[in-house]
Amino acid sequence: MSVETEAAQAAAEAVQAEHARMWDELSGAELIQAIADGRFPQVSLVDEHIGQTIRSAEPGRISLEWTPGGHLCNPGGTVHGGYVAMILDNASCLAGASTGEHFMPMLTLSLNVDYLRPVLAGRTYTVAGTCVHAGRTRMVANAAITDAEGRVLAQASASVLPNRAFAR
To answer: I want to staple 83 with a disulfide (CB 3.0 to 4.6 A). Which of 25, 72, 141, 151 is the partner?
Structure first.
């Protein structure tokens, strides 16, 4: 093995060890913020597919930037309602996860979406999620998509629960 290969392998192992440490030690909000800052890898490839970027997190509150691509549009030319629901679900789940002592992905029990205005591809929106009840077994969160003018395009309320498969 070459010196360069050994150095690259050692660097990769150090990064992996740092990510493992962060997973074990950071709170839910801290880990979500680390993802936003690029210090921790995305948990899912879904974010890239739908155009979601985490901007900020604090306990009980998260902010996403969403730029949906044309591949998410329905035949009518607007972003399909299922993708609108997906981003609202993501925001609700992340808001719930931000309240934890450690990050734990959430499972959605229910999601109620109100579609208020069309969402168009190629534009950037803000998606805010707020956890309004952080119970041990069930959480309730709200999320809203707003445009550059501050108008709400869609909103949702959700019940989520921690995915105990990730408990530590």
So the answer is: 72
